[in-house]
Fold this protein.
Amino acid sequence: MSANDTTVIGNYADMIKMQLPNGKAIQRVTAALAERDDSLKYLPAMAANMGLQHRDLVQTALPTAYLATFGGSWKESKSEYAPVTEELCMIRSTYRIPSDILKNAPKEVGMARLRAEKASHMMACLQSATNIQIYGPSTPTQAAIVGLLQREPYKTYDYKFTWSAGGTGDDKRNALLIKPGFDTVTRLYNQNHPTMGVEDAEKGEFPVTSIGSNSDEHRWDLWFEFMIQTGLHIADQRACKLICNIDAGPTDDPGEDLIDAIFDAASINAPKGGNLLRYNGSGQVVEEIPTPWILFVDERTHSKLRRPINNKRLVALSNENVYQRSVPMLDDIIIARMDALGYSTVGSGADAVSAAS
């Protein structure tokens, strides 16, 4: 066995069309990757300009405009910018299995088992990467990676960048309200990596020794390697809002407090940008398409939001969106899943976010 090349490994673009570069149907492992983190479908992917690092300037203040009279004068002004650096995180995992388990089982059984294990490993990599981007690593190995909840202005709720749904129980969750766009919020990938940061490689069959009571005992194992290189770039902080302190236990109903927080966050301190570009066959930009807000929630909150919250505000399915998919929508907000937001077990929710002082 040899490592898969770029003709059999799906990237972000392939996920959208569900077809590999060689025309074959996309692997189930990559499909599973896309199904569990909808940001792969809704956020545009941009190459980091420094490989595993992305450097940019973020606008922090508008120019100053002055009242002037005919024949009068006014001062010059300019926008203010601050430099930002975003690190990509690289998550890896390894799977090995005694080769005779796969070889001696019926082919369809062995392949089904292998596909399931591959999907699980890629899911684990994705969950780990998203957790690091949102919550930050518990023992940082790349010091520049700062979790979204550990940085300003999302560390506290001020009803400008972060809204509280008022939850006080043990099963609290967070939600992210994001307006995608190359000038607002994008995913990052390593431009030097041919698969845009998603890798599923078969390393081959190797002997494993010193595994029994005798030194000469051995067996042959098949080895598989998985890797994700990804990051998140927020070019406009107003395009990323955190909805925190959501009660999402088995018997909790988030209720109107959550709905009100979502609508307020989408309306107050809203970004000026958020566009996707549509190209023609010659690679020329035809038009800029304004993107809707995407609300990313964990599977438990997603389930609760898809039910009618009350008689006045219903969650409906609609394909009236820029993606032309039938998705659950709340007004003009698409409700999507990011399962890493609900990484905590029942009874042990996310840490409470406090009010700004």
